[in-house]
Amino acid sequence: MIARHTVAGALLVALTGAFITAVPSAAQSTGPEHAGFDATAPRDGHYHHGELGEMLMALETSIRCNCGCGLDVHSCQFQMQCGVSPVWSKRMRDALERGESVEAIRAGFVAEYGPTVLMAPPPEGFNLVGYLLPAAAILTAGMLVGLIARGNAQRRAAVAPVEAVDPEREAKLQAALKELDELESPDW
User: Fold this and answer.
1) What is the pLDDT of residues 149-163, one digit of tens each?
2) CATH topology classification for 50-117
3) Which terminal CB of the chain, N or C, has fewer other CB atoms within 10 Å?
4) CA 96 – CA 125 distance, rounded (Å)
5) Nearest 10 degrees: Cα torsion 92, 95, 100, 106
């Protein structure tokens, strides 16, 4: 019996290994449901090493791809395989190599495509509500919890203390409990 399980387990491991090596490993989605899919999109490598790479990564993750996926340029380029994000990534990389600053490149994208190209709205004007409202809600909730807890503490203090029970009433209570115990005791 043990030998059959061992052989079956070895066979399962061998088949799983063969399946894993037979399936090509690709991080990109190639599904036709993605509106921006372009099978001929250039893929010239992953350039995120060193200081230039860190600046490129900061840019790619702060700019939203406009292919309709809603992802940042980096994620779209390496997950959705659209035709927009590789071009934008190359544009960013070339600008960084020319010596442009991250802020200047980001401002260029905002000037060309509008503020919706940013992953996070700039903290100005009505956008400040989105930044400040969560903190205000958390503070308000904390104050409400504190007030409720304080009210409960005051209510507990207002409860009359229990007086000492006189010995005669205690004896009656003990007798009643003993009688109840005898009535409810099992017959076995």
Assistant:
1) 888 777 776 666 777
2) Helicase, Ruva Protein; domain 3 (1.10.8)
3) C
4) 30
5) -30
Q: Determine what percent of the chain falls in helix, strand and coil, rounding each to the nearest 5.
A: 65, 5, 35
pTM over 0.70, yes/no: no
CA gap 125, 10 in Å, rounded: 64
Cα–Cα distance measured from residue 42 to residue 90, given in angstroms and rounded to the nearest whole number:
10
Residue with tokens 């995120």: 48
In the numeric block, which tokens belong to residue 108?
């260029």
Q: How is residue 136 written in tokens?
A: 């205000």
**CA pair distance 166, 22, nearest whole angstrom:** 87
Q: Any idea where the domains of the chain sit in the sequence?
A: 50-117, 123-156
Instruction: Please name the amino acid found at residue 97.
Output: E
